[in-house]
Every structure is written in C-alpha cells, then in structure tokens.
Amino acid sequence: MADPSTYRPKPGEIPLDPGVYRFRDKDGRVIYVGKAKSLRSRLSSYFQDISALHPRTRTMVTTGASVEWTVVRNEVEALQLEYSWIKEFDPRFNVKYRDDKSYPYLAVTMGELFPRAQVMRGRKRPGTRYFGPYAHAWAIRETLDQLLRVFPIRTCSSGVFKRAGQVGRPCLLGYIEKCSAPCVGRVSEENHRAIAEDFCDFMAGHTDRFVKRLEREMLEASSELDFETAARRRDDLGALTKALERSAVVLGDATDADVFGIADDELEAAVQVFHVRGGRVRGQRGWVVDKQEEGDLGLAEVVERLLLQVYGGESPEGVPREVLVPALPPDPDSVAEWLGGLRSARVDLRVPQRGDKRTLMQTVERNAAQALARHKVARAGDLTARSQALQDLQDALGLSQAPLRIECFDVSHVQGTNVVASMVVFEDGLARKGEYRRFIVRGTPQPDGSVRVDDTAAMDEVLTRRFRRYLEEQGDSGGLEIDDHDQDDRLPHGPIDETTGKPRRFAYPPQLIVVDGGKPQVNAAAAALRNLGIDDVAVVGLAKRLEEVWLPDDDFPVILPRTSEGLYLLQRVRDEAHRFAITFHRQRRSKAMVRSALDDIPGLGQVRAKALLAHFGSVKKLRAADVSEITAVKGIGPALAQTIQAALREDGADVPAVNLTTGEVLE
C-alpha cells in the first residue's frame, strides 16, 4: 500500500478555517470528499498512526496520492459544496451522502390543486419544485417558519387538509395567519397558487422585488398612520431578512458568473476561479502562473492574460453574463467587448465592491492565497505510489501494469441444475457494486443434442458473453470519450451511451480476470478470450484448497506468501464473487422448488390450491380422493373438482408438493 506520509501536507500549510477537502488517487480521480469545521484538525487526523485508523479510512488514505482543500466561510457552505462535489465526482469512499436520502430539501408540490411546502428526501417527483439541499431538516423548518409570515402557503398533510375542510375550521396555522387556509375557502385556488409561485420565486433567488415591496408597503402604512400594518410589514421584512442569511456559495439573484481570485508575489501568481451558475458554485479551477517568464507583470496585466487564456478557446455557452475579477485589465472596455463577441451578448466585466458577490470574491481570494502557499512549500517527489496489494499482484504475476480493475467470475449450481454465474468488479482494490453482473448459464449444445453445463463450459460461456458485449460496445461507441476541458480536474472516462448519457455496461476492460478454481477453469477462461482475439487481459485462478494462484498453461501454481496483501485482495475478490453467485443461485433454486402438481391445473389459483393442501395434507392424498371429497373444500365446485382429479391422475409421477405459505416440502 502507498505510504500516506509521501503526500502529507505540513501542518502549517493547512488552514484553520472551515472547508471541503478532496483525496485523489494516482490517476487524479477524486476518491473521497469531506468537510470540516477546521481543515487543519480534520486532515491531521488522517495522517496519524495508520494502525489506529478505521479499516475503511486506512484503505482510503493508502489509496490516495494527494489531498487538496477549498476554504469556505462556514459549515453550511462546506456542506453544500461537499454535496455538489459528491454528486459530481461520485467518490468511491463516500457512503453517507451518496444519494439524496441524506440531504433534505424544501419541496413545493406545484402539481397539486393546492400546492404544499414540506421537507422531502429521496427521489425527485414530477410536478414538485425542490430547493436545497439543506444541512438539516430543522434548518428547512426554521426557514419555512420565517417565510410563512410573508407567504402563507399550505404546509399540512392531505389528511389534515381534508379534515379541516369537512369540519369548516382551519388548523392552528390558519388562526395565527401562517396559512392562508384554502381548506375553508379563505382564499381561492388561483390566489393560493399565486402565493405558492411567489414563494418559489423567492426561494429561487429572485428576492429583491419582495423586499422592496414590503419596504414600500411599510412606508405607505406609516405615512397613513396605520402603525399596526406598518409594524406587521416591519416584522415581515425582518423575517425575509433572516431567511436571506445564506452562505457565499448561493447568490440571491440567480447569478451566472465566473469569479476570479489571485494571490501573487514577485515571481508567481496563484489563480482560483469559481464557476457560478444559477446562483450556485458549479465548479472550481486553480493553477499557478509564472510571472518571471513574462517580465514584471502587475496585477492588471495578470488579469488580462488570465482572461485571454481562460476564454480564448471557450464556446459561447462557456462565457457567463458576468466576469468578476480582483482588478480590471489595462484596457477593460476592449476585453469586455471581446468577451461579448464570444458570447454574442453583453458581458459585464467588473470588480465587485460590496454585497454577496464581494463576499464570494473574498472566499475565492482566500483559496488562491492557500494555493500559492501550498505551491511554495510543496515537496518535489513522486506522489503516485501504488497500493501495496496491487503492486504485489503486478510483481507476482508479471503484469505490465498494476491491475487497477479486477473482474472475478464464479459459477454456482447443484448437480448441473439452475446454473448461474457472477461477475464482481474491484477498482483500486475496492468493490464497485454498481458494476456487478449476474448470468444465467444456458449451456453449450453438443452434436448429439445434449447440453453441456459443467464448470469449464459455463466459464467459457460467461467469459465469451461478457467480452463479446465489450467488443460490441467498443464498436458502437466509435471511441467516443468525454471531452473534459478542465485540466485541473481530469477524470478518466469510458465510452458513453449517446442516448442515456451513462457509461456503457461492459465498456471498461479489466487488467486482470480472476476465476474461482484451478487449472481447468483458468484454461477455459483463457481459451474464451483467445477465441475472441483479446490478448491484453491477464487471467488467473485462485484455488481454494491451498489458495494457490494458477496461470494459463502453467504446470505449477504461483504461491503467494500468506502475509501478502496481494493474496488477501484476491481472496476478497474471490469470496465476493462466490457470495454473489450463491445468492443468485439460491433465488433461482427457490423459485424452481416452490412448485407442486397443482400449479399447472387450469382454473386452480394459489388460494384454492393452499386450501386443498391444508384440507388433504398432501398431493398424494388429494390424488386418491374422489370428486365428492374434493368438492367438500370451500371454493371448489364439481367441474373444477373433476378437472383436478383428471389432471392429478394423468400426472401419476411423484411430484413433490410444497406448502406455498412456508416453502416446506410436504412429500
């Protein structure tokens, strides 16, 4: 395994501020995203004595090759940024926040007759508008409680709403004016929907018009000496102001902007840019510019060259409406006109002076200062040390590269029946369960008409099907790759399905195939690949008796030391494939076994079949009964009784009967 000390930052480099950090592996892929109230305290905990770490954390830090961080203002910002990056990078070590269930949203059910505001988790529903994510559900409820003063939208459940309409009396929120009470007709359907739409506009960031409207109404009421209304508007305005207290990563006016921050000295300048779309930070980039190569550049010249470099090859969609910089270039009008020509619309190039945009600029500048400090103290050296287990396998098996993707196949059956196979995938030593596959083995037809379903034939069939599909996917994709222009966040991608936008199922070839078994299974797997013309994928077998590793066409196995991390990884892969195959086989076998001779009788359903078995106790006794005895069972008429008797006496074979409720074999 890699030594975390090879990429450990010096404690003085790590800021004490809250922020979000990312661990990357040797290929630059993000393997973990986390947030911290104090980056220094949290990151230092990863580089303590490795034996004291949780096994999953230990695997993560030994898989990583570098760590980076982004400074934010508070924990709410950190959570929102962590969420965005987990969704973007899908890090393999992140579990808790992998799906929407961990993040509550404020949802407005605009698809209902009377829209309702509520906390929602899980899968998005059509006709519902979502706002968030939030750190906690209580944060949504506090925000909603503040806004109900101004936007008295319905928040009750369907049952409460219906009951209030039946009794003609609203709930408590209706009495304290935090609900417009459409349940009892205080407002019409149209007026309540207008309130819901205003609420959604406010949550979407279009806040200024509501604040100005309340200020105007407050002043008008005050000038007319209606101090009660003025006080109410004042309190409403305070509620909106409190709800508008938000983090710098969410802007209130649905801003589309690129925000640049620069930290420089006499020789170099560190640049950070936050890409804000729809009021949210959608991406971040950073790099270091060598000022010495271009002579003595001032900040204005650095900004001008930076804009030319960033937007020189951009498409019109890549240039936002606003470009916020720490200093204007020497000729700002010309640069703004050039940007407008690229976008085919006006581009506002300016230095933010106050408000949320200035606050976000300060956050970006702090990240730039941290990046420059890290760059200055960064040690030269190789930060791409491989995992020890993968290195052991590369050395022991004589591979040209470390097996970053391992696929393991296992066949499961009982005396040749219900034959199935499993394929499990490990990447960088970790299971990728989303890429597991199951196969129903059909068998290999023989010249005499029989079907061969032994272990070697099944292995040949499964490998052939898997890699034939891989060759088809490669042919269909035409070598299509995702074009990632963000040079600071390069991620490896495989062929993409043009219709779904998702990676193709079998598009990624492994560097190593592991089969559960010895020499016969390995040779069968190697022959399947050879018949398909695939010669760049290594194949090994792991025999369970002595845990020896077999290579194709070798007379003697490779014996790995019992303490080898490579052997431990192979065992985990093999055991996972065996577990996955056994689980699938049991499912198939259970479906095949829970049957009886009654299942094929026309007109006899499951309920009446259970009644017959409960009455007679077994199919054998039912077969011996006459029509009158069968009709004594509730629900069985004379015609059906004759059909049952005829079917059972024609089928005189001893078919085992099974209790359909418990699955117990009755005979």
Q: What do we call the CATH topology of the largest domain?
A: Nucleotidyltransferase, domain 5
Cα separation of the termini: 56 Å
Mean pLDDT: 76
How many distinct folded domains? 6
Number of helices in the DSSP assignment: 20
Pick out the low-confidence regions: 95-102, 292-296, 378-386, 477-496, 653-667
CATH architecture of the largest domain: 2-Layer Sandwich
The percentage of residues in β strands lies in 15-25%
What is the helix fraction of residues, given as a range?
Answer: 25-40%
Q: Main sheet? A: 7 strands, mixed
What value does the Rg take, in angstroms? Answer: 34 Å
Determine the structural class based on helices, strands and strand pairing. alpha+beta
What is the CATH top level name of the largest domain? Answer: Alpha Beta
Domain UVR: 208-243
Keywords: Cytoplasm, DNA damage, DNA excision, DNA repair, Excision nuclease, SOS response
GO biological process, one term: nucleotide-excision repair
Main location: cytoplasm
